[in-house]
Structure formats: C-alpha cells, structure tokens
Amino acid sequence: MSHLATPDYRRARDIPRTVLTSTKHSKVGTDPDAEPQHVLFLIDRFPHRVGGAEGVLLRTTRLLPAKRYRCSVATFAVDPQFGDASRLFECPFHLFPLQRTYDWNAVRVAAKIARLIRSQRVNIVHTFFTTSDLFGGLIAKLSGCPVLISSRRDMGIYRSAKHRLAYRLLGGMFDQIQAVSDEVRAYSISQDALPSGRVVTLHNGVDLEEIRQAHAIARSDQTLALQGASHVIATVGNIRPVKGTDVLIRAAALVCKQLPTAAFLVIGGVQDPEYFRSLQELAASLGITRNIKFLGLRYDVVSILKACDVFYQSSRSEGLPNAVLEAMACGLPCVATDVGGTREIVADGTSGFLVPPQIPELAAERLLRLLQDPKSAQEMGETGFKIVEQRFTAQAMVNRLVEHYDVILEAKRSAR
What we know:
The protein is α/β, with parallel strands linked by helices. The protein contains 15 helices and 13 strands. The protein has two domains: 12-205 and 393-414, Rossmann fold, CATH 3.40.50; 209-391, Rossmann fold (3-Layer(aba) Sandwich), CATH 3.40.50.2000. The protein has a seven-stranded parallel β-sheet, with helices on both faces. The longest helix is centred in the last third of the chain and has 21 residues, at 394-414.
C-alpha cells in the first residue's frame, strides 16, 4: 500500500551552502578557507539494531557538509549482536568500554575522552542519552571543548531520582539542548529548570531515498506467517511495557471479532522476557494466538511495512516516534497513541488517527475504520507521505542542525 514518489534527494555535501544555512552566519557558514569544525557525537551504546537515535546519528554523520563539518563518533558499549559498529560510519569511531561511572575504569575512560577532545581539536561535543549527557558532557566541559550540545529524545521515562537531580544541577553546562519534539522541549524546560532560549526543537528525519529503494516483501514470505491473512497491521518496537504491546493485543482481539483473519505483525526484539510471556498468555486467553505474529528482531522493517495495510503504534510514552515516520514514508495510514510528540507528525483524521493510550476499544474502532475503507486509508497514507516529504526528511533535519551549529559557533567566536 505504498505510493512513494521519487524525492529530490541529495547528500548535504552536494548542496550549495546558501541552501544549508542563513547568510547572516557568514564567518562560519560561507568562508571557503575555514578549517572544518570537528563534531564529536557521544552516545551511550549501540543496541542490537539501529533504532531511532542511532539511525538519526548515522544519517547525520553522512549528511553533514564535509567541507564545513568533520565528525567522530564515540560510544561506551556495543551490543555483541550488533557486530562491528564502526563499519556503519564513514568517520572515525571510538569505543570506550564503560560499565560504571564511579570506578577506576571510569577515570581512565574520562582521560581518554579528554585526550581525544584536545588532540583532535573537537569544536562541538554532541551527546545522546544519560551517561553521555552527564558523564561525557562534564568531561567535555572540563576539557575546554568550546560547545556542548545535548540531544533529548524522550519524556524522561528512564530517569532515576539521581538522574533527575543531576540534570538540574548540571543543566547549565550545556550551550544548547535539542529536543526531538515540542513536547520533549517543554518537558526539558520544566523538569530541568532550563532557560527556554537554550532549548530548541529538532525533529527527526527519515531517509526517503533509502525507503524508496526498499522492495516490499511478499505476503507469501514464510517468515511472516501470513497465509490466509485478509488484512495486515504492523507495529515496530522492542518488547517492553512502555511500547504498550498488551494494549495492541487487546485492540487486535476486538478487530478480529469483525475481521477474523486479520494479522498483527509485532516487529522488535524481546527486551523484557517476562513481559513477553505475559503477552503470549494474553493472546492465548483472547483466542488470537494465530492472529498475533511476533517477528522478533528484523533488519528489513521497511520492506515489511510496505507489505502492510495499516500501522498501529500503541506506546505509553514517546519522544517522537521514528517508527511512525517510517510507516508514513511507506504510505501507510497510522493509528497512534497521542503521547509525546506524536501529534506533531500525525494529523488526526487526515493522515491517520490519534487515540489515548491504554484504550484498546477506541484504537480498534479506528483500525476497523481504515481496514474497512481502503480508499480513505489510501488517501490518508498518501497525505502522511506528503507530510514526511515536506517536513521530516533527513536532509531537512540536518539543514536545521547545521543552522544551530553555525549560530552557536558564531556566538562563541564573537564573545571572545
């Protein structure tokens, strides 16, 4: 059900500078003889697959204009299933194994990061997630790095009490906080007591060219187990309570009362085995074991989405759901919970439907409306694709990022 147009997609390094940044930032943005500014991206870990934040980071390093910005990436952990993370990047990649931030190994890691920042003349340290923000950010500041930027990607659901305190105490060390949605921006300002002028919104962007090139998987593919399925609904997210897969199963049971051969594909690795067992038991108790297909970790998510009819996000919390953006880019109408920044990408009643979290009855009603009216579903899918094409491409995301970098570097230079 994909209706993708061919976008005008070019790498940032091939686009004229005047497109990438405003001319008012002349010293940073237009000096052809200026040495490229060095950005060190620091991220907590690489899990078993490239997810939202990891995908954003990967696309950013590939699309930053090479004549103006050079990149390095550093992380504290790589999941063994992931393999060699450095193979993904066209820039230097550093692994600094770290389990705790308060032992002698942490001191050694801190020294290595500081040495990297100084020896490689890093101009910007850009952090992702808690350890990188607090541990890495403090090291960057003490090392004399000119600019420190934090990327905030959720509504604080993983923060402990000590993390909440640390973010308040250390919030002033960041030159800018880039929130993934307006809702995350508001949360950061409120919870971390940050000045509003220092917190900006930088929405995710997806690679439309990569999505366009992916071929739809055949519904007859045996790994999908869709034999006899009349309708196919997909969700993408690791198996853990915050993703609300239990709500999806309850909604699926209501849908299957009217569409007995509808199939729900759950794509994602199991992060909480106990929760996963409870999901299997719930599906069995509702009599829909055959309708719920747990596909596990997949690396062909886009190809699977292109074989589906509708996308359903059942999350209890989100910053800005990258999976929804990918589904919209595949031309799928979406039913999504109205959490975090989801309403900033899904136009309720136009490109899909927003529903409250944990109300499976309403989600089922919206799913049935789309499944039983293919023409309206197609129109919503086409509208969703246009929204992504106009506002949420990887190139648009990087263009805005470059503007933020330019402004901060110019302000630092002027303040000298």
